[in-house]
Structure formats: C-alpha cells, structure tokens
Amino acid sequence: MAVAGGLQLSAPSHGCQGQVLLSSTKSTLFAGSPLSFSLSTYGKESFCRKNLVVFARRLSGLEEAMRIKRERETRQLAPKIGRRPPLRRGRVSPQLPVPDHIPRPPYVGSSILPEIASEHQFPGSEGIADMRAACELAARVLESAGKLVRPSITTNEIDIAVHQMIVDAGAYPSPLGYGGFPKSVCTSVNECMCHGIPDSRQLQSGDIINIDVTVYLNGYHGDTSKTFLCGEVSESIQRLVKVTEECLEKGIAVCKDGASFKKIGKRISEHAEKYGYGVVERFVGHGVGTVFHSEPLILHHRNDQSGSMVEGQTFTIEPILTMGSIECKTWPDNWTTLTADGSPAAQFEHTILITRTGAEILTTC
C-alpha cells in the first residue's frame, strides 16, 4: 500500500495453520504500510515450526541460486549505472492544510497507527460506484504527478501538487496524518523501497521514483502507485521498472472468484526470477475500501497462504522488485525504507475488484 505501500511482516507466514494476529507499530504503514504481525494458533494444534523449517529447506536452493545471480548481475552492471551517492534525507516542510469542509478518515488527528481491520472489504452494488470514483481520482492524480517528474524538481514540490489536486477534487489525501505520516503522498527514490517522505531533495537525471497516491472520497479509499523514470535512466534500471510493472499485471491476471491468494505470489515470483530480480517479502498488499488497510494481506512472493478470493471484494496488489538484496533498513523517521545494500527498487500498485471471471482494475483513468 502506499500509504499505499506495503505491510511489513515480522514473522514467516508459510505453511502454518492458525490465526494471524496483527499488532500496529510506529513503523507500520499503509500497503505499502509497514505492518507487523505475529503468528500463533489456537486449540490443540501448536505453532507449526516443523512445517516452516521444511518449507524453508525446500526453497533454500532456489533462493540461494537467485541471490548469487542477482549479486553477479549487480556487480556486472555497476560500471554501466555508475556509483550514485546513497539517498539522503532532505528538509521536510510542515504538512499542508486541508479545507474544513472535506471529510476526514477516522484516523486523522491521532498519531497512533490504526490496527489492520480483520474484515475483508466488499463495497456492494451501491458502494462500488463511490469506490470507482475514489480510485479513478487516485489514478488521475498519479498520472498528473508523473508528468512533473524531471531533473531538479523536488519531491516536496510533487507533494504540494498532489495535495492540491486531491483537495480541489473535494477529497482527502489518505496518507496525511496516517499514524503521524507528515505528507500527502509517498515518494520513493532509487533504493527506497517504499514510504519515502517528500522533502527538499532534487531529483537527478538517472533517478527512478515511485509515487504512491491514495485518496479518500465519499467514504472510500482509492490506492495506486507507479515508478517513473527521471531524465536519462540506464537500460538496466529501465528493465527493472518494466519487469516490475509486468509482475503486477501477471499477479492481477490470476485473480478471479474462487482463485487462491497464493497464486498471486507464485506468478509474480516466476516472472521476476526470469530476470534475476528479488521480490521483497516484507511489504504486502491489503484489503481497501471504507478502511485504508484490512485483510486479506496479499503476499507477492512464493507462499502457502490459505484462503481464496471472493466476488465483490476489493484489495491492492503492489509488488516491489530489487536488483540486489530484498532485505531492508528503515530510517529513524520510521517510514522511509531502503534496500539494505543500496540497490535500486521499483514498485507498481493497483486497487482491484474481484469478479466472477476475473478482476477489474479500479485505479485507471
């Protein structure tokens, strides 16, 4: 999710029977959001550590091979893409005001991160019209924001423009005030996986930037993101961006009433592995509608997640791919999350509606 961006996982979720318990932390975010949860079971069955171990062993050979391949390609590409200085925090300006007549989501006014709602979201025949309107607005704002991307513009200037477009449409920028998030959009540059806070840093030719837009309109959230190229971007990084978008498309393609959620991660991983890219496991998609973040949590990597999609439900899919390590580190602001090795990362996101025969992408213009 984005705040729209990715939910953050603190424990493996493969091959276990039991209930997922969610607890919010200061680092948790929207979809993107970092969510942290623990796994436990009830009744007679105990936590299935044995199953987790077996599953990990089964994948360890493939994962190690892919890790070696990614490291080799990263070394080979280094002379071509050059050594860009690591991302540094710029000056963060105060948050922008929202006119009083615009309705706020219930979390606004509190710095406490909301719990992830356990209920799956089904807008219904009446609500889906409002949901479509919110998602279409988010898509329009995102495309307009993407046209601003150029060398010398600051991410803060992008935030100002996004904020103005949203409030002019009578909507509220969902990230603003979510668990204390200080801005109206997430801007994640180069090695930033997600949840970047707009600041005074100027974009440079060769940068990539994910812009994550979520709006709250007529009681519904619309959530979408896209990675844009700034100036002259190397072919290797352009390929990362292109493949990430393809992974989102392939994940959506398996969705329909009755399909298992784990098919999404399988299809995304299969495509990413063809190019030697890593799929970030820590951040996941999520249910979205009247609530910003809810179940189901959508895993983008290979997994044994239980459950199936149901006609009428809405959620996001938002894979993050990297050219190197899928491990991450978070800045002291508790939001900005970067790849641990400084390698580039890209992300794309859509909000979708499950139908009887497929999935409708709601976040389109």
Automatic annotation (TrEMBL):
Binding site for a divalent metal cation 2: 223, 286, 318, 349
Source organism of this protein record: Malus baccata (Siberian crab apple)
Keywords annotated in UniProt: Aminopeptidase, Hydrolase, Metal-binding, Protease, Transit peptide
EC number: 3.4.11.18
InterPro entries linked: Creatinase/aminopeptidase-like (IPR036005), Pept_M24 (IPR000994), Pept_M24_MAP (IPR001714), Pept_M24A_MAP1 (IPR002467)
Family, per entry: Belongs to the peptidase M24A family. Methionine aminopeptidase type 1 subfamily.
Known cofactor(s): Co(2+); Zn(2+); Mn(2+); Fe(2+)
Name listed for the protein in its UniProt record: Methionine aminopeptidase
Record-listed a divalent metal cation 1 binding positions: 212, 223, 349
Entry GO terms, CC: chloroplast
GO BP: any one term: proteolysis
Catalysis: reaction(s): Release of N-terminal amino acids, preferentially methionine, from peptides and arylamides
Residue intervals of the Peptidase M24 domain: 130-355
Spans annotated as Disordered: 83-104
Single annotated GO MF: metal ion binding
Its job: Cotranslationally removes the N-terminal methionine from nascent proteins. The N-terminal methionine is often cleaved when the second residue in the primary sequence is small and uncharged (Met-Ala-, Cys, Gly, Pro, Ser, Thr, or Val).
Domain of life per record: Eukaryota
Residues that hold substrate according to the record: 195, 293
Cofactor binding, per record: Binds 2 divalent metal cations per subunit. Has a high-affinity and a low affinity metal-binding site. The true nature of the physiological cofactor is under debate. The enzyme is active with cobalt, zinc, manganese or divalent iron ions. Most likely, methionine aminopeptidases function as mononuclear Fe(2+)-metalloproteases under physiological conditions, and the catalytically relevant metal-binding site has been assigned to the histidine-containing high-affinity site.
NCBIfam families for this protein: met_pdase_I (TIGR00500)
